[in-house]
Amino acid sequence: MAKNYSAEVEKHTADFDPSKQYRVTLQTNAGPIRLDLRPDKAPGHCKNMVGLAKAGFYDGCIFHRVIDGFMIQGGDPTGTGTGGPGYQIDAEFNDLPHEAGVLSMARSQDPNSAGSQFFICLPGNTSFLNGQYTAFGKVADDESLETVKKIGSTETNPGDRPLDEQRIEKATAEVIG
User: Fold this and answer.
1) pTM (two decimals)
2) What are the beta bridge partners of residue 172?
3) Do 104 and 134 touch, CB atoms closer than 8 A?
4) Which terminus in the chain has less CB density within 10 A, N or C?
5) CA gap 86, 6 in Å, rounded
6) Count of CB atoms within 10 A of residue 93's CB?
């Protein structure tokens, strides 16, 4: 049975303040992805990602699903697309548009089934995701978007898994304002 990270997230987010600005940095083998979170739009999702990053949950996770022109998906410790942190969080649908560089939470058919898996939109038409998935951040700069695009252009197998592993080496979280 997989470990439940709920207590770890709570421990690492005891001082989480939704009025502050947070950044999660994913140091990947393709380069850095700096993500500015939007706790004003989805405080539960932001707190969850900050806690998981601080707990080391994302360290070593791969981007297990990559669809050029759509998105890159990661955050599953099993690398299969079925893993998670051992708990689920409720959807926080909002008006943030799904566009290039937007961070959103992956889930199953149940809107309240998100856990740790996230995706970052690539350039292309992703507006059909608006109001269906919880957007809760965006890449902070051009270098980060370039890293996302580099991962997004990697060759994949028929199941959308990269042929060359695209990995999060280390995830960190910090208050930036």
Assistant:
1) 0.97
2) 25
3) yes
4) N
5) 7
6) 14
| Beta carbons of 134 and 114 less than 8 angstroms apart | yes
Q: Which two tokens stand for residue 47?
A: 């707190």
CA atoms within 13 A on the CB side of 60: 5
pLDDT per residue rounded down to tens, the chain (177 residues): 468 899 999 999 999 999 999 999 999 999 999 999 999 999 999 999 999 999 999 999 999 999 999 999 999 999 999 999 999 999 999 999 999 999 999 999 999 999 999 999 999 999 999 999 999 999 999 999 999 999 999 999 999 999 999 999 999 999 998
Tokens (6 digits) for 163? 């042929």
Q: Are 32 and 145 in contact (CB under 8 A)?
A: no
Distances (CA, A) of 163 to 71, 75, 102, 151: 16, 18, 24, 11
Side chain identity, residue 66: V
